[in-house]
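Hey, I'm writing a tutorial for new members on how sequence and structure tokens pair up, and I'd like a real worked example in the thread rather than a made-up one. If someone can provide the structure for the chain below, I'll link this post from the tutorial.
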Amino acid sequence: MRIPFTLILLCLSFLGYSQDKEADSIKKLIENYKVVDTNLVNLRQSYAAKKMLMTPSDTTWLSYNKETLELAKDMNYTKGLLLANNNIGVVYHYFLSDPLTALDYYQTAYSISEQNPSLKRYQYSMLTNMGLIHYEQEDYDKALPIFRKLLRYPQRKSNTLSNIGNIYGLQQQTDSAVYYFRASIKEAKRTGDVLQVANVSSNLGLVQAQADQLNEGLANTALSLKMIDSLNLEVLRVPAYVNAAEVYMHGNDLDKAEYYASESLNAVKSLNNLYTETKSLQTLATIQEKKGDYQNALKNYKAANVLNDSLVSTDRKVEISRKEIQYEADKKEALAVAEAERQRAIKNASLVGGGGVILASLFAFISYRRKQRSDTAKKEAEFNATVAEVELKALRAQMNPHFIFNSLNSIGDYILNNNTQAASDYLAKFARLMRMTLENSDKQLITLEEDISLLNTYLAIEQKRFEKAFDFEIRVTDGLDTDEILLPPMLLQPFVENSIVHGLSKSEKGGEILINFISEQQKLICTVEDNGVGRATSKSRNGHQKKNSMGMSITQNRIEVLNKTKGTNGSVKIVDKELGTKVIVSLPLVLA
């Protein structure tokens, strides 16, 4: 099932939607206000909260909120500091696609609320926005508990309910998603939050269409679009248009679907939001494929893939930096606790007097140093493990474009040769492969059954591209439970690609690829064997194999990182046969 795409509504300093007239009235008050005091800061905060949602493409919001922050700093106005930091985080997060910087501002705002009991009522907003970062990184196991915890807060309950509904939609639990969306709309109507009614109606319409409740889906989609137009809810227009395109595509009204997808892409250019633009491109490409417009579909698939690559790079930096920040904070906190304990011990020891003071102080200092070293070593070990895990995700991300690029080129060849039926078949297989690859791209391990399905799809695509120049077979030894055994996703793909491109494509006779999975001494042995020309002959014909070696090098690096993080001894061995090549990958036998 495709997912409701509309971004979960952000928290802009805890104020709901208001019409332009009210925001304009506040703006006039600010312009005529002659004193620089806390009331001026409050007015500026209120104006930003009401107006930013209606004008997300306005590039001045960052400087506006930073000016408000400076005013609050000058007068040491704690509440103003909290709200300004949160609003700046929103600008970086949603308008500038920079969650790393946004996280800094959210954490600063949250720290202010922790230090001031009277400001704890504002924690809802920071928690929601930090939960959204987990959501956007597809870390739903961390996002869902945060949103469930937020149900305790009475303010913006509708927003929390819709957040939970979105996660259930992503997890393909349609009934639960519909339940929470309807509860969210009911709560939003009770409080008069028209922005939230429009937002959730769009998501509900998409989920209903995906569940074959097309009439209900069309009705909720129409309601959302009407509200966006009549109330000028510009922050919702692009994602709601993408949702509408999906709904009409489910109803096979491809002209309307293409209209809304195209309009979303035209409008998204002013938002500077890479997540939103990627979704618009992907949806438009899917619709164009269904309409037989393969040339434009290919162009938009490629554009979406380029943006997705940049998002992967950004995500990696966010994860590493976030862990570094948390690590430093935890280490400082641990040292502060240890220092406090040492001071308390010294104070108590002073009551004893004389030699007792020296002994107690010495004992406290030794204990403090031991605890300091222990805490620091533990934090460093945890951090190194986290970085290694992130590096592993990045290596997997590098793998995806390596074979997707070849598939896109093949589709382009079919289109250029006017072979539309072949292009359609190939594009369908490619879309399935890309979906499966993206679903598994952030997983450390998948089942053997899933990996075999991926390899089958990949080999079928390559077999078609090379006009059946080779046959392939995937064997699993009797007794191996493919639904229980786990391994890194697409680990064998570069070796299979090497067999095809540098072995079998150069062979003058029919080629064969045999992939075998066996269990041996608590290890999973995976082999890729071909009867091609072999590495030496291929190298002499090609001159060099830098492109080929990159994928194989990445795979070897992945295994090295796995060995480091799991304490295992996985390995790769390449055997040159008289005719062809055999690759042997040895992995620890891991069960689900």
